[in-house]
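Quick entry between incubations.
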Amino acid sequence: MLSERLQLKLYLEPSEHFEIEALIPVFHRFIRDRVLEELMIDVVDYSHVPDGPGVVLIGHGADFYVGALDGQYGLVYSRKRGGPGPDGRLQDALRRLINAARLLEQESALKLRFKSGELSLRLTDRLRAPNDDATFADTQAEVLSVFGRIYGGEIAALRSSASKGPLELRIKASTSPTLEALLEKLGGPPDVAS
Amino acid sequence: MTVATTWKQKLAGQVREDWAREIDIFETQIELRKKGKVEEKLFAETRLRRGTYGQRYDNGQRHDGEKTQSLPFPSGELTKGPVTMWDAPGMQRIKIPYGKLSAEQLETLSELAEEYSDQILHITTRQDIQLHFIHIEDTPDLMRRLAAAGITTREACGNTVRNVTACPYAGVCSTESFDVIPYANALAFFLLGHPDTQDFGRKFKVAFSGCKDEPCGLTNFHDAGAIARTRTVNGEVKRGFEYYVGGGLGAVPYPATLFDEFLPEEELFPITQAVCRVFARLGERENRARARLKFVVKKLGIEEFKRLVLEERAKLRPDERWVSFLSDLHVTDEKPLKPGSELAPGSYPKGFDAWRRTNVQAQSQKGYSTAKVTLPLGDFTPAQGRLMAELARRFTGDSMRLTVEQNLLFRWVSNADLPAFYQLLVQAGLGMAGADHITDVTSCPGTDTCKLGISSSRGLATELHKQLSVVADQLDPAAQGLHIKCSGCSNSCGQHHVADMGFLGVSRNMNGRRVPHFQLVIGGQYKNNGGSYGLAIGAIPSKQVPKAVKTLTDRFVAEKLDGESFQAFVARIGKKEIRKLVDQLSVIPSYEQDPSYYSDWGDPREYTIGDLGVGECAGEVVPQVQVGLADSERELFEAQLLLDEGSSDSAAARAFSAMVLAAKALTREKNSFLGEGVDEIVSEFRAHYYDTKLFFDPFSGGKFAHYFFRAYEHRAEATASKDSAHQLIEEAQLFVEAAHQCYTRIAGALP
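Done. Structure below.
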């Protein structure tokens, strides 16, 4: 995948108990206790923006969002810079996303449950990954390969880009492994930043 | 065909040559700085002139509620300015002259927010767009992409002419003398990069308004403010401007002073150029706190300042650009997409009537309306940006304005299209009513991202919006029309001085812990281009502010006279009454009873440092200091009351006395034998707190102590005018605040 910038999203099960503001103290604690493997810097609350990024955990190389930018709540891993080379980018992003989702599910106060088999991928780099048929074909092939290997079963990856938006694919796996099982297949949690 | 691998290649030929060259140079400077070949201060000034700012925590330190932790950025010790780490995320300010955006520009901005920022575009109180959490190395490409869309970030910050703002209704407004946009547009680009605007000691802001009575242009607090005027000479209507200079908010707000009641249109550019030259020559260089034009005008007096400007004007080499734009004043005209029409009677979408009441305004052109999109805190997403661009193309003929109330205004909506327009907004989550009303709270970035923020202005604004929205429909119309504005610190980016209820972030020590507060600022006037400034009544714990707003609003509704404005109401009942409310709300539960008061809105980290250590000496002394500081605040309040009564001399004397009390309270800690004499207090304060820099804070240095010393030097002067007493009260307020901060530091509660 040529695009260094990508956003991988795992969707939340709908829940009447979900309160987005509850993420704020959790993300602050993630920074304080250096829970995640990357350098995290700040927490921003955009919950006042309808269909917005929600609550954002800002990092140096990547951000995490719990929001509804596409109208549906989920956790987004947004790689901004750095990370592995083109061949390992997608799998690396999936690993970090699943790890963060697992950590959030473990926060009992949040009462979050993710749909492990429903994701979306956005390539936020219009130079290297323009929203065109060629990029879609390349990306779809890579998604089918990586997700097929990790999830097993059938994978569907369909184009869902909005007009003038970045290239976006909606991904559905026929299986719904647990987050722990997925993380195991992905090589376990990444090393925590020192 | 060669595939472009960089934005520079991809956009070759699409960017103005001079802008492209500037960005290339900036990119080179980034590389040189990385190699250590450009000094950090020089690089900082360079990037600031291109609108590339630092952000909170960019010193590589972050307090997590318990302790300060280092942020181990990968580039190590490399900096992009003094105490500003290279890798720390920063803010990119993008100046949008008079807030005018095309659909293509809005789409480009949306792409940039999507790719380089945090999925949010933020509208500022000066019609700019800001993107946050940007890496310095992404900025050259970001600037190229903007330049290809006809936007430059040049001089969006730094000691330069900042964004030229103007009334968003200009050209479609029924109260304007004429459309000021061709003038604002031409002047913005005339001053951009002009040799006479490159050597200021501080920034310079220009604003235009089409009329005097409405608030839209807010010319009263700009360095140069131009209000459209016409004059009939020999039967011919001549255009000109009521021209003001030396206004400004900031820590101590100054109203602008009338320079010329009718500056002919052909003199607008040369006079502004001459003002810039005088400012560059006589403006303060060493002391940033007194470097704005307002201090030059104040020091010289308007007559002398005007004499110098006219003398400078006479020496200027003629420039054809002064008048060439006058030959085609229609160059900025907008062509509506559709003919004007009437809104057909019938059943409208749910919520349409309420939205229309607050967000729609008839244009001076029959059959058209402006429609405002309410954007809470001025934030919107890239997808919403693209939708609004599409709406502009589909309904208006590509005409949008960013507003200083942090909303987005569409112009030339044919009236019959309003329901369909509204419905599409609703589908994108943008159909909120209440634009520029009580629920639409203005806020600067505050502690969310700003390095100078003391309290969470955005957190407070969000909470007020949330609570007020629940009751907005039931509020009396007079209350619905109130304006609330929040600033995170005394720099006034939230423009709290001109709100009905303004809030200014401060902090206080209570029960041995630090507690976020907001000063309640009452009595400001929004109309008349921000006609007068309010004064602080007292500090309220942040978590009590919504109660203060509710109590004040309820009382206004219950007791106001027919047609009485909030400003007049406050003047009638007196600030003593308001102060009673502040005093009631200043009491909070202990930390053990309710710790929520000890953190800020939207931020659960404890505002107080957990390991607060109170030494033996401090344990004894701190309460005495606190009592003394409370005395100084009371004295300050008395000064305000005297000012309201018209006793300017007494008010000024009382303001100085408040400063003395605060200085005495602090100095007693260092010299327990301190006497009561003012000379001794000043001298001892200087020795113990100023010379040692103990009174200095990281951002303002010793500027607040300078206020005290200056007041001391001038204390014997015979009379104070209303304005000078007002100013002294503002300065005393800041000095007392600084004393609070100093006390917190010496008590060990601040890093």
